[in-house]
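User: Hello! My lab partner asked me to get a predicted holo structure for this protein. The small molecule is zinc ion, SMILES included with the sequence. Please write out the structure tokens.
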Amino acid sequence: MSTDIELNKSDFEETRYSRLELIPWWNQELLHNSTVMVVGAGAIGNELIKNLALLGVGKIVIVDMDKIEQTNLTRSILYRMKDVGKYKSQAAAEAAMEINPDVKAICLNQNIVTDIGLGVFRSMDIVLGGLDNREARLAINQSCYKVNKPWIDGAIEVLNGFARVFVPPGPCYECTMTETDWKLINKRKSCALLTHDEMLEGKTPTTPTSSSIIAGVQVQEMLKILHNDRNLPTLAGKGYVFNGLTHDSFVVEYQLKDDCMSHDLYEDIKEMNWSGRETTLKTVLSQAESELGEGAVVEFDRDVATVANCTCGHTKDIFNTVNRLRGKDIVCEKCGKSMQFETIHTINGEEDFLDKKLYEIGIPLYHIIAVRKGMKYAYYELSKDKNEVLGGLFE
Ligand SMILES: [Zn+2]
Ligand SMILES: [Zn+2]
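Assistant: Hello! Below are the structure tokens for the protein in complex with zinc ion.
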């Protein structure tokens, strides 16, 4: 029997995303075109990355510098016994692409506080945190606010947890910090130059159940923020607090602190054909002078240690950012004592090391450099580093 009605095959065939697309405000193409950074590939990070892959978020950047241990396997859906010893970020990226081949995931086995340039943050649509320490949260927070990107923090302990959403120019993570938070951060900083292991703030008991609840809330908030043209209510400037013992949960609202130090905004960022590996301090300074006039200075967002001096008279070059220095870096080779080091964070042209390249003094690749004359600022992105740092993601 024949029929005159021509049936469209696609009316019957479901795709991978058909059930998600039943949601009235859902835009699968938007998710496919989104770029999301996940910082931390531990208990929460695993759940975040799993969700992003299932949902078909097109580009995922995973930052973590640790390796997988057997103890991770009770809380990490992306890792198997055979992955023990591999980098978390790499195993997580591979697993994400296996879950969903529509997804491109890359890994950065680097320290979020010291190694990730602001250009990376600027390339993201949103940043998700699965972290266990305040210093990393503060670093993400400052970076996101500088380049005007929202970020969503998650934290868990035993059966409890919370998810907090920070959208510039609203209240930020630093606005929520209490005196105790600062004491704990400063305590870590004053035990200057700790090793990486010592930096980890003790070991927190966590479960795969609370991590999936909190990461689920984080990713749902991300979905709403990405679909920002749909006017869905979000937790921007608020925190969702979950008590797993009683299953009480509530939302707290944060206040914007006027004197908060994290609200710096880099406006009118210029994409320069510069690489941190090639571009010298002199080049940046002369660009600054040609744009802002004589007397312009380069102003780094971190302290740079230049030389170290010992009481025994020995002197040596350091040239690295202070946040990257470890105790062994400033031990005197002559007498074994700890040396004092000199730091700078502006360059005015009088330095005797202007031929040094940005990377040689510890500035991360694909960073954004601020220059200033009086209160007038300009911002230069090391855009030539993009491919090396985010290799393949945008090809
Ligand atoms: Zn703030
Ligand atoms: Zn010495």
